[in-house]
Amino acid sequence: MEPTAEFATAPEFWRSTQKTVSIPLVLYEAKLAQEGRKLTLAGLVVFAVWTGIGGVLCFGYTPFPARLVPLSIVGLGAVGFAIQTQRMMRLRKNGGYYRISLDDYGLYVHSDDPSLAPAFSVIAPEVYRLVRITIKQYEGSDELEYYVETKSGSRHRIEQIFADYDLDVMAMFERIAERFPWVQLVEEVKH
């Protein structure tokens, strides 16, 4: 039986659909358990150094009434580092991924731990701006936050843990802008 105009053979169908299939481009991928082990170790080291140096400075060089304020600062910092380290310890048990990918139809952020890093997707025509916010600190070190903004004005945050650790967000934003030429790269500064 000969193929008619209504029914194409499998190779013909494959050739015709190959033109419309968009292969996703993985911009970033982190295995959560592996990253959790690295970040937990780093958190424990920072916690130990912070409390060690703080303890030596508080107890070794200041008399009792004067050490209360520095001791409370060291204590608050230690609690902050402990909370972040505990947050990273959860990742060690998670066998999933945090993945940012892109194709002709949109931008996708997949997260197997939504409490740490929420997942989101934005269809291509809705991607409006890629925003880097610089938050000026008084001590001289600035904090950076990265967002994908839609035409409706909603912003989706690229997870800060990975952006601070090993993700070059600006290079990723440039690749997104190459794929979607209408997207604007925007820098905002907050004081």
Topology readout:
Elements: H1 10-18, E1 25-31, H2 32-61, H3 64-91, E2 97-103, E3 106-111, E4 120-123, E5 127-135, E6 143-150, E7 155-157, H4 160-165, H5 169-179, E8 184-190
The helix/strand order is HEHHEEEEEEHHE
Mean pLDDT: 79
Distance between the termini: 74 Å
User: Count of DSSP helices?
Assistant: 5
Provide the β-strand percentage band: 25-35%
Protein structure class: alpha+beta
Low-confidence stretches: none
Shape: elongated
Q: Sketch the major β-sheet.
A: 4 strands, antiparallel
Strand order of the largest sheet: 1-2-3-4
Question: For the CA atoms, what is the radius of gyration?
Answer: 24 Å
| Count of beta strands | 8
Helix fraction? 40-55%
What's this model, at a glance?
The protein has 191 residues and is of the alpha+beta class. It is built from five helices and eight strands; from the N terminus they run αβααββββββααβ.
Can you characterise this structure?
By secondary structure, the chain is α+β, with helices and mostly antiparallel strands. The protein has a domain at 36-91. 44% of the residues lie in helices and 27% in strands. The chain contains five helices and eight strands; from the N terminus they run αβααββββββααβ. The strands form two sheets. A four-stranded antiparallel beta sheet has the order 1-2-3-4. It has a four-stranded mixed beta sheet with strand order 7-6-5-8. Helix 2 (32-61) packs antiparallel against helix 3 (64-91). The model has no long low-confidence stretch (mean pLDDT 79).
